Amino acid sequence: MLPTLAGGTLFFPGLFALCSWALRRWRPEWTGTDRVMISTRLVSSVQAVLATGSGIVIIRSCNDVVAGRHWLAREYVWFLIPYMIYDCYAMYLCDWYRARDQNRAHSLTLRSFLSRNRLMITHHAVILFVLVPVAQRLRGDLGDFFVGCIFTAELSTPFVSLGRVLIQLKQQHTLLYKVNGVLTLATFLCCRILLFPFMYWSYGHQQGLSLLQVPFRIPFFCNVANAFLIAPQIYWFSLLCRKALRLFDNPQAKKDG
User: Fold this and answer.
1) The pTM is what?
2) Which candidate, 109, 94, 99, places its Cα nearest to that of 41?
């Protein structure tokens, strides 16, 4: 546990610092805001690739969806904790640079930052203070398969991050931006929304139950937990869909972002 926590504590801020330094040398014409934002997105994408890879390994290793075990199901959670703390700081840093560019850095208080980012901060807090105890202690030795499934939800993050980078660089008019938008919607739908029916189906397939029978055969708190997890994903997906519709319905949006 402690070596993994220490490794994550060094890895994510260190990777951010390395990316910022490299961009300062390779793209000196970019602003500080560009470098910080792009470095943050690169780190998020690396974390997403690691989490997705870990999830796939866990899923493939667990022949029993309830009792199957893999060491990554616990170990990667310890690696994820420092990332969540780092990411909160990175979000604040991005906000600070944007506020500085708009000559309002003095008005960026902790309260205003929390207000603008309340959903994402809540998301991180739930992971740290609810999902981590559940994943590491409360579930006992069961459910590694489902932990692996949750890890794969990160597959959409690199596409979301690339979209934000392209907007930052004013590349919304490019074919890459359009293709990435389609991939963002597809991976978000599959890995953050359809993932939950897949987990229910996997359990039902092993137990000889239909998909519709599963919610009535598992503990009530499991349904409640899944509802809390999927609710923000549906909200974010609706925002992505609205943004995609605006982009394709209004050609001028491609230029203005």
Assistant:
1) 0.86
2) 94
Residues 18-43: pLDDT tens digits?
Answer: 999 999 999 888 888 889 999 999 99
Q: What is the tens place of the pLDDT at every residue in 83-141?
A: 999 999 999 888 888 888 777 766 677 778 888 888 888 888 888 888 888 888 888 88
Query: Measuring CA to CA, which residue among 140, 171, 192, 152 is closest to residue 55?
Result: 152
What's the CA gap between 39 and 168, in Å, rounded?
Answer: 12
| CB within 8 Å of 113: residues ≥ 6 apart | 91, 92, 95
Give the span between the Cα atoms of 93 and 154, in whole angstroms.
Answer: 22
In 174-248, DSSP assigns E strands to: none
Q: Give backbone dihedrals phi and psi of 209, rounded to 5 degrees, phi first.
A: -115, 155
Residue type at position 112: S
For every residue of 43-91, DSSP letters joined together read HHHHHHHHHHHHHHHHHHH-SSTTT---THHHHHHHHHHHHHHHHHHHH
Q: Residue type for 143, please?
A: G
